[in-house]
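STRUCTURE:
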């Protein structure tokens, strides 16, 4: 996963100053997807009816999808309304697929169960875990995590400053901040 951290870091280093100054939070992931990669971010009520989506069982849907040949990231509008912090993470996740897994131009679909934080879920495929790691590194860069953690360790404040869910922040804190004796 260190290589994924470096990939996200390289992406952030190449973001022009007019998109992001490298220090102001939260990281503008949607503007980065648009301005730096030319990816349009769209929302749809039910992604299972998106162009080329595989058939799902009744009641299942997708959290997000990447259509590389169309240069589009699609988000599940229901999820983005119900869990606002997840919207940014899903954009980062799909951007991770763009940076690491888009060869062949085939659509990449992320089922709701593959991007959510349920502890009972089975281990997800490696590309999904890699895209999650990329999103976390992009939205919560280590140096900025350290800076904000030293400023004020309030967990709720950190979630708000980075505009991420509590589960995403909890995982990232454990990954980035050294444990204190």
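SEQUENCE:
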């Amino acid at each position: 996963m260190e290589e994924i951290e470096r990939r996200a870091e390289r992406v952030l280093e190449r973001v022009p100053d007019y998109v992001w100054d490298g220090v102001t939070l939260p990281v503008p992931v949607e503007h980065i997807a648009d301005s730096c990669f030319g990816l349009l971010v769209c929302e749809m009520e039910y992604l299972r009816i998106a162009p080329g989506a595989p058939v799902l069982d009744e009641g299942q849907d997708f959290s997000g999808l990447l259509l590389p040949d169309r240069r589009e990231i699609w988000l599940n509008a229901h999820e983005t309304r119900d869990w606002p912090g997840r919207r940014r993470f899903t954009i980062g996740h799909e951007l991770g697929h763009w940076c690491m897994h888009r060869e062949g131009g085939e659509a990449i679909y992320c089922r709701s169960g593959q991007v959510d934080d349920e502890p009972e879920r089975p281990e997800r495929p490696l590309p999904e875990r890699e895209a999650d790691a990329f999103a976390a590194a992009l939205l919560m860069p280590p140096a900025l995590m350290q800076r904000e953690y030293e400023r004020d360790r309030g967990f709720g404040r950190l979630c708000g400053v980075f505009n991420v869910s509590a589960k995403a922040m909890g995982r990232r804190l454990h990954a980035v901040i050294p444990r204190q004796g």
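REMARK: The chain has nine helices and four strands.
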